[in-house]
Write a structure and sequence with these properties.
- It is built from eleven helices and eight strands.
- By secondary structure, the chain is of the alpha/beta class.
- Strands 1, 2, 3, 4, 5, 6, 7 and 8 form an eight-stranded mixed beta sheet that branches.
- A hairpin with a 2-residue loop joins strand 3 and strand 4.
Amino acid sequence: MRIDLHCHSTASDGTDTPAELVKNAAAAGLDVVALTDHDTTRGYAEAIAALPEGLTLVPGAELSCRIDGISLHMLAYLFDPEEPALLAERELVRDDRVPRAKGMIAKLNELGVPVTWEQVKRIAGEGSVGRPHVASALVELGVVPTVSDAFTDQWLADGGRAFVEKHETDPFEAIRLVKGAGGVCVFAHPAAAKRGRTVPEARIAELAAAGLDGIEVDHMDHDADARARLRGLARELGLLVTGSSDYHGSRKTVALGAYTTDPEVYGEITRRATGAFPVPGTGGA
């Protein structure tokens, strides 16, 4: 089985619609794909309606969190999307995205970059607006060559010249909320140092003690040394190890299935979840 547990659609900051994502996942030879848009489950219905036969969808989300001034992302799988407490927190995070984007635009304007809200809104479409959409605007304007090049201290990285904070969930609270909704929590790309400061291992140990299920190890932003270190940490803390592409369509260069999760780990994730179930494809619409 080929299992990719971290993918984005136009419901957040990917460039494939949810329907295109599942069709492209099947074409890439995947057996299981997770839809993990940022702080939203809006893409579920479209993805499920288009699921090709032979492909299973894992409903999920990537939750925006912050601890000790450090941004981190928590992958939540197979939770009840209608559970009131987690739903309210996701909406709170999403509602803060628009003023945050406008604040970044204002800072960029002060730096002489003629980006506009209309441009960023057009790029975001129906998705939850975020930094990648502002980064794409910088690419359109020729300010940077790629989206990744916008995530530096010069521009949009944490603490960068045009960075603006947004509401982000305390990760201990995120774990509590996801568990309360019957879901499973995996810390996304915990050693992605090029994105900014990373969470110390001592804090990850505290998160594990609070119910964290796993850490995403095999990821494009982790080099071989980081993966080896994270595998050792996972063994020490009794955490599951996942791998995934963090696919964003054409917004990033990584391909679907570039990194995958062991089938036994996937089976354990499904066994632990009580809020929702993987959805097998029956041919799509």
